[in-house]
Each structure stands twice: as C-alpha cells, then as structure tokens.
Specification:
Blueprint: H1 2-38, E1 48-57, E2 60-65, E3 77-82, E4 85-86, H2 98-108, E5 114-118, E6 130-135, H3 142-148, E7 153-154, H4 164-176, H5 181-184
C-alpha cells in the first residue's frame, strides 16, 4: 500500500513539473515573438515610393519610382534585389521552395501595388541591381516577412548590415518551427 501511495505522489510531482515546464516554455516563445514583432523597423523617413511592375523571383522584383531620387535617379523601370536575404532560385532550374518563395513575394507586393523602399550603405551591386529594403504601405517589412515565413534565408554582405540582427532572429524562429523551406527542404 505504501509503495502505491509513493508511486502516486511521484507521478503527481512529475506531472506537475512537466506542466510547469511546458507552460513556461510556451510563455517564453510568445514573449520572444512579441519582442521580434516589436523590433520590426517602421518605414524610414528617407524611404521613397515605388510601384511594383513585376516579381522575378522570391528576392528580386521590378518597380518604377514615383519621384526621381539619388538612389534610383529618374530611371523608369528599376531592378530591385531585396537586401539581407536570399531565396531559392527559379532559373535555370527551380530549386526546392523557389516557386513558393516567388509566390510569397508576389502575394506581399503584387504588380501594381505601392511599396516604400530604402537603401543601406551601398545601393547597387555588381550586376546593376538596386539593393533595397522594402515595406508595404501598411508598414510590413517585406524582407523580414520573407524570412519569417521560411521563404528566404539571411544573406548579408558588408557593409549593408542595418537589419541583420532582426533578420537572423526571424530566421532562427522560422528554422525552429520549422516554416516554409526549412520544413520542406531542410537546411
């Protein structure tokens, strides 16, 4: 009889400890998500308005500037490469999650939509693309959204590091879920 009572007490203690452990972990994860959401950068004061013409793949699009500025000048159509991220390729062959990453970017910034764009330290790459961070008019940070949904991985090249810490934290969360490419394609 004593052994049954001791086993019963032991089981209650183990169940209580497990409940405490998992309840605490859930609160920490929720707090981490709130902290990350709070860190999403607002549209910066130096951002400029553009109209999306087309999406090439998950990290490249074409847009037309509303008002000429020092970053894009008065060029009509501008090829934009999203800063701080890399998505799977769609050509010459479609990589795992390439089509899905393209679909995510297209859903965030469809042709004809308005975006707000801002450069970092270097605004152009050796391929002639304009390197930009992009926001939707309602303040969604597109580069970060792609990482958070598992459509992109972080790829930062100095000196363009302004949002690196945020992007890495979003990637860590997407990998731990796992979300998007991390679930479908692995690492």
């Amino acid at each position: 009889m004593r052994i049954r009572v001791l086993v019963g007490i032991l089981l209650v203690v183990i169940a209580g400890a497990a409940l405490w452990w998992f309840a605490g972990r859930g609160e920490e994860a929720t707090a981490d998500r709130r902290a990350t959401a709070a860190a999403v950068p607002p549209i910066p004061a130096d951002a400029f308005e553009m109209t999306v013409e087309s999406v090439h793949d998950g990290d490249t699009l074409r847009a037309r500037v509303a008002t000429p500025n020092p970053i894009v000048g008065d060029r009509g159509s501008t090829r934009i490469r999203l800063l701080g991220i890399d998505t799977p390729e769609v050509s010459p062959e479609v990589d795992c999650w390439g089509a899905e990453a393209t679909a995510v970017l297209t859903s965030l910034v469809p042709a004809g939509s308005t975006i707000w764009a801002a450069a970092d330290v270097e605004s152009h790459d050796r391929y002639g693309r304009t390197l930009l961070y992009v926001w939707t008019p309602d303040g969604r940070f597109v580069n970060g959204e792609l990482v958070a949904q598992g459509a992109a991985r972080v790829e930062v090249y100095a000196p363009n590091r302004r949002h690196e810490a945020l992007l890495r934290s979003l990637q860590d969360a997407a990998m731990s879920e796992p979300a998007g490419r991390w679930r479908a394609c692995g690492g």
